[in-house]
Each structure stands twice: as C-alpha cells, then as structure tokens.
Amino acid sequence: MIKDIVKNLEVSSTLRINELSKELESKGKKVFKFGFGQSPFKIPEDVIDELKNNAFKNKYLPMQGLPELREAVANYISNKKNYNYKAENILVGPGTKELMFLLQMLFDGEVILPTPSWVSYEPQAILGRNKVHWIETRRENNWFPTSNDIEKIILKNEKKNYLLLLNSPNNPSGQICENLDEISKIIKKYNILVLSDEIYSELYFTKNYKSISNYCPENTIISTGLSKWCGAGGWRLGYFIIPNELTRLKNSLKVLASETFSSVSAPIQYAAIAAHQNDHTNYINKSRKILKLVGEYVYNNLKSNKILINKPQGGFYLMPEFLDMKYKSSQEMCSSLLTDTGVVLLPGSDFGFSKDKLITRLSFTDFDGKEFMDNLPEKQNLDNSLVDKFAPKIVEGTKRLKAWVESK
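Above: the chain sequence. Below: its structure as tokens.
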C-alpha cells in the first residue's frame, strides 16, 4: 500500500527529538533541550494583537497570499536587499518547509546540497525524485562549498538543470557564508537555480549580513518567514520571494499550492502584515544580543582539545565535533549522552555527515526568552552573569556535557 520511495524515509529528526524530549520530561527525567531548535522569544505584542483582532476572518484568501501582506513583505525585503521586489514576487505558504517541498515536486533536475544541510532538504529531494549531489565542506570555510566544489559537479553533465540550496546563517553549523561572490560567478556561468534559505537572516551576529541574492538575484529564490526572528514557528507562515525571471516557476508553484494547502490561515496572514510593517528593530536587536551572548557562552565553555567548534555567527546553533571518543556513530554517541546526562543533541548524520563522524548539532535555546529580554540592560555591557541568571538550563546542560566529555 505504501510507495517504495516513502518506505525508507523516517520522521524528521528535529521533530522526533522534540517529542522524545517531552516524553522523557513527562516521565520525570531532567532534560536539557539542546536538540530541537525553535525561537525562545515571545511573539511581539503588536503582532499578537493583530491576530486577536482578525480572529473572525474566516474566508479563503488568494492562494498566492493576501495582497496587503505580499505588498508588506515585498517592501520589507526590497529595503533589506536593495532590490525592487513587488507583491507579485511573493508566494505565501504554511511555513517555508511546505513551499520547499512543492519546489522539489516541480523541479526537473538535480539538487546540490552542502554537507551539512538541514534535515529535510534531502528527504524532500527524494520525494521529488531529484538526484542529490552532496558537497563535502570544511570547517575552515565555515562549512560552505567553494565555487570549485560546485563546478566539479556541474561539469559531469552540463546539460542538466541544477538546484543549489544555500542556508546562511546555517542550520546546523551556526555559520555565515563568506564566499558568496565567488559562488555567484558559477551560478551565473551555468545559470543555476538557487534556493537561499534565509529563515535565520535577521539573527546574524556579524556586521553587514549578505545573501547570495545580493549577487545574483535573477537566479535566486529567497525563502524566509516568521518562525525564527518573530518567534512564531507554530503559526506556520513562510514565503518565497521569486524574481520576475522565474515567473514560470512561480506560476507552477501556484498550481501546486492550489492543489495542496489552498491558502494560509487568514487571521495569521493579517497579523503578519504588522510583523512586516511595524518597527521591530528593538525586538530583533535584543534577540540578537541574547543569542550571541548565550551562544558564545556555550562555545567558550565547550571548545577544548576534545571538542572542535566554530564560534557562532548567527541563528541559535553550534556544531561540536567530538575527538577521541569510542563510539561507532554520532547517533550512538548522542544516545549515550542523553542516557548519561539528560542533554539532548542531534547526530551529524542527520545533516549529511557520515555516521562515523562524531559531529552533532547543539541548539542553545532552552531558556525563557521573554524573561531574558525583559531584563536585558539597555546600555551596559552584557556579561555571563546574565546567562547564569536567565539561562540556567543552558549553564547546567553545558557543564554536564563538558564533564561527560572529560570523563571519557
């Protein structure tokens, strides 16, 4: 009864680990949720108020999205990217995950994925019957591919269509891609389609964040939404920004949208207008400061001759690599860690690494974001006393993880 293409797939590891953590907690085990990545911050009050004010809206909205919302998103993104996007360039979906899935369904070609990549990219490509080419990346290059890495794949068959997925700031590494200019030259040379997953783009810690869309907007679909910067993951609202050069692709996506989700929840779309039209600079800046402080606390306490780790540059992830550990796989190591300490990490094999490479993903969001934000000093320098006070599970979980490694 079940198609072969689905039989070998498993439940998304990020969702599975979230449910496992809740199950262990319900049984009385103290769990440190470093596995599931979601914003710890409360949705801005003005956005919540707009959801309440529009709760009575019960009509189907246009499948491409509410025109007023698409206009607000287009203006917001145009200002960020210094590129002229219009409402017609926006496609609203129930989270970007669904839109990515529909893109894989219609794309006729082969998919290029850097290792590491978000857990759902490859399964969606498989369901779309698209061949996947993995690119091994290096710590020294922030875990992103070089132009030569990409070109080697294309030169094997230049007649194919290629879809390159770039995610910066990256899940799971927490790194930002810094060689976009050289990558863009290959994209233009071979007319590659790029999906730029920018769901964490507001949560960068370095100055002058850029995306591949700043270099080759005509080839780039930008994917983003409310879940990370606005703390609204459970609302399920995301969107694609699709340039005029890709109008045929956009129209095909609209066909698939009409046959799947029809349209996104009306009250949430109205509330999302406020998220993009109102000024949330203070909220976003505070989110960045807190995440940077907490991320660097974990980084500074874990880096050692037994743990290789890059300093976080955005989002809320770190990617520790454990050395001299006697485990056959990252999955086995994570299971042992959870049993011994209650600390939840995700194995690197879920993100494209070989099973025997002892790399993991660590999410540093297990704290009350509202309490932290409400007590964040306005002007004085931030220090680790704030982490001790407002992120105690991060502190204890990090200590347990460090002690566990040192005991091995």
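DSSP finds 15 helices and twelve strands in the chain.
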